[in-house]
């Protein structure tokens, strides 16, 4: 009767996985990557991954370890980090914590409202006419003021 091997459980998350445990995981997977099923030999280096990542609440124990090739491990880690940040964002939302808003620019100016039947499109010639009317008004005001000044001077104050 074979001896029963007790499952390795890390004392804390920082504890290195002992070589004997790595070997057991390697042999349990029959040298194949758990994701792409490639045979891990030669240039392909074995990597040991937590099925449920530690950052997502996974346990640092033998039953939570799997054999991956480096490419699959890289991709899985990326997914684990994305899952972690998503759950972190949800937790922040649930707690009503908002991250400080970033500085914002002025954005785009508001566009003029489109022309409607009640506010018809002003023609360029209308705008020029309006501006020239304004010029004429200003020049008449300044002429009037000059006239007043002249009259004051003639009175001799
Ligand atoms: Zn792989």
Give a brief outline of the structure.
The chain contains three helices and two strands. The N and C termini lie far apart (129 Å).
Topology of this protein?
Elements: H1 19-28, E1 46-50, E2 65-69, H2 70-94, H3 124-155
Bound molecules: zinc ion.
Overview of this structure, please?
The protein has a two-stranded antiparallel ribbon. Helices cover 43% and strands 6% of the residues. The protein starts with 18 loop residues before the first helix and ends with a helix. It has a domain at 19-94: DNA Binding (I), subunit A, CATH 1.10.30. The radius of gyration is 39 Å and the shape is rod-shaped. It is mainly alpha-helical and 157 residues long. The longest helix has 32 residues, at 124-155. It contains 3 helices and 2 strands, in the order αββαα. The structure holds zinc ion.
Q: In the CATH classification, which architecture of the domain at 19-94 applies?
A: Orthogonal Bundle
Amino- and carboxy-terminal Cα gap: 129 Å
Total number of beta strands = 2
Instruction: Find the structural class using helix and strand composition.
Output: mainly alpha
User: Strand arrangement, largest sheet?
Assistant: 1-2
Average pLDDT confidence is 84
Radius of gyration: 39 Å
Under the CATH scheme, which class of the domain at 19-94?
Mainly Alpha
Largest sheet: 2 strands, antiparallel
- Give helix % range: 40-55%
Q: What name does the CATH topology of the domain at 19-94 carry?
A: DNA Binding (I), subunit A
Q: What is the approximate shape?
A: rod-shaped
């Amino acid at each position: 009767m074979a001896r029963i091997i007790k499952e390795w459980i890390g004392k804390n998350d920082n504890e290195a996985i002992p070589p004997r445990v790595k070997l057991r995981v390697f042999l349990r997977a029959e040298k194949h990557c758990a994701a792409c099923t490639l045979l891990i030999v030669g240039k392909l280096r074995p990597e040991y991954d937590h099925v449920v990542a530690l950052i997502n609440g996974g346990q640092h124990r033998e039953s939570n370890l799997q054999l991956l090739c480096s490419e699959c491990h890289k991709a899985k880690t990326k997914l684990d980090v994305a899952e972690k940040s998503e759950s972190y964002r949800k937790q922040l939302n649930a707690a009503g914590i908002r991250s400080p808003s970033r500085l914002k620019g002025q954005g785009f100016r508001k566009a003029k409202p489109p022309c409607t039947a009640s506010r018809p499109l002003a023609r360029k010639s209308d705008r020029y006419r309006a501006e020239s009317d304004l010029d004429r008004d200003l020049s008449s005001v300044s002429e009037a003021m000059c006239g007043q000044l002249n009259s004051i001077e003639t009175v001799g104050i």
